[in-house]
Amino acid sequence: xxxxxxxxxxxxxxxxxxxxxxxxxxxxxxxxxxxxxxxxxxxxxxxxxxxxxxxxxxxxxxxxxxxxxxxxxxxxxxxxxxxxxxxxxxxxxxxxxxxxxxxxxxxxxxxxxxxxxxxxxxxxxxxxxxxxxxxxxxxxxxxxxxxxxxxxxxxxxxxxxxxxxxxxxxxxxxxxxxxxxxxxxxxxxxxxxxxxxxxxxxxxxxxxxxxxxxxxxxxxxxxxxxxxxxxxxxxxxxxxx
Length: 241
Fold this sequence. Notes:
Blueprint lengths: L17 E5 L9 E5 L2 E2 L2 E2 L1 E4 L4 E5 L2 E2 L3 E3 L4 E5 L2 E2 L3 E4 L3 E5 L2 E2 L3 E4 L5 E4 L8 E2 L3 E4 L5 E4 L2 E2 L3 E4 L5 E4 L2 E2 L3 E4 L2 E8 L2 E2 L3 E4 L2 E9 L2 E2 L3 E4 L11 E2 L3 E3 L6
Parallel strand pairs: 2-5, 3-6, 4-7, 5-8, 6-9, 7-10, 8-11, 9-12, 10-13, 11-14, 12-15, 14-17, 15-18, 16-19, 17-20, 18-21, 19-22, 20-23, 21-24, 22-25, 23-26, 24-27, 25-28, 26-29, 28-30, 29-31
Antiparallel strand pairs: 1-2
């Protein structure tokens, strides 16, 4: 969690532009969409962060989705999102001490993605999947309760998955990464580490897995110890107990 401060961002109401746009037919929420280009508190039906903008949600409640545009930055602190948080080609995403009732799904993000806690002190939730694909910045997922799965596919930078409770499974597949580390996670189903090209360090340590620990086709093979799996450790995971 390098570079992450535990101090919440100070706010004074809703700063920056907050343009209200009626939602169209067929959207997941009723009401209005707020275009966020500054810092927002309070309650909103849905939020869009336009291309190139920076949006901070501090203590906010969003009844619907948060959509992040290309080149945009999203920072959330102590916020509740009752549907999904998603975007393509964002600049940077920090979802800190934030409960997301739906999915977290980002693709082709240029900068860092941090999902979890400020200093790993509390336990936010994701009721759906955390699904990160083809992102270019470092990824850290820390002390989350995830009711479905963590899916990390085809990403291109460092990955850290630490101290999470995942009721589904963890899939780490097809990533081209300097380092991948999974530590102290409790996983209800399988933890699958497949076809990753790792340059420096690939570590799986002290994970409790309800299903299988599956490691196949990785270059380099994972190392570590203290892992347990109800369905057994298989492939390149065999000696990681």
